[in-house]
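debug: dumping io for the single-chain case to check the tokenizer round-trip. Nothing else runs in this session.
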Amino acid sequence: MDLVVGVDAGGTASHAVVATAAGVVAGRGRAGPGNPLSAGPAAVEALAAALRQALSTVDPAAVVGGVLGLAGSSACADPAFTAALETEWRRAGLRCRWRVVGDAVTAFAAGTSASGGAVLIAGTGAVAAEIQEHQIVRVTDGLGWLLGDEGSGHWLGVQALRAAVRAWPSPFATAVAAEAGAGDRDRLIGWAQELHHARIAALAEVVCARARAGDPQATAITAGAVARLTATLDGLGPVGGPVVLAGSLLTRDTPIREGLLAALRARGTSALPGRDPAAAAAWLATPGRSPDVHAVLTGFHSRAA
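debug: decoded output
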């Protein structure tokens, strides 16, 4: 039985899926952050761990193809990084051909079997991309936490910290400080300077929860995120094909998702929900890329969000 492998490597976690060519999942794996730009050398170790776990119940020799959807795919310009990936692929017992694509490609495929359209991702980071023939042809944002990723989880966390230290001791500020484990304003400032990136991004949950409760500071931050994500998508210009929403802020029930969908509906644009990008990566590795196999692997049934 021919098998395929799909891996989704993001800033928060790495996921791997092994499936049959007919779309039946035969194995799954999960490990730590797989973005080499933010996780460094540990990214390759995480990818390898997720891959080995997914392959643990199958014969690697039966795998005929693989696709890795990689956040921070610009790292592939480094020969040392690509060599490390190749080494781990072989150590897992895989001898077939495989290819690396940007995570925007797998995120788009997680929402549709169409070969082209647009995808907006908002998770730890944020980026919009135009996809044609399952390749990225244009990108806006995706510049990382320091230079961009506006409207992302990390951006929300930074805005929360800024608002908290400027409006201390508001209820919002104390909620943010409690999540950071900081007892007062000075400790919160010190904590922020240490750049706990994953925990800063995790503050997005506090912002979203407080916005749901009607907190004016949180509501202002989420509205700002929606405006920035809308602008990021608009930066692509006119794009033919479906629009897919991906990333935890846009696939879960969040004020960010609600606000963005309302903004898109106001202009007559519908959006498709992204589902499992690791499964979508596996689908991209299947011969023929059948829409029926796509539906089985991703559970997607062409319903707009």
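debug: round-trip ok. The CA atoms of residues 141 and 147 lie 9 Å apart.
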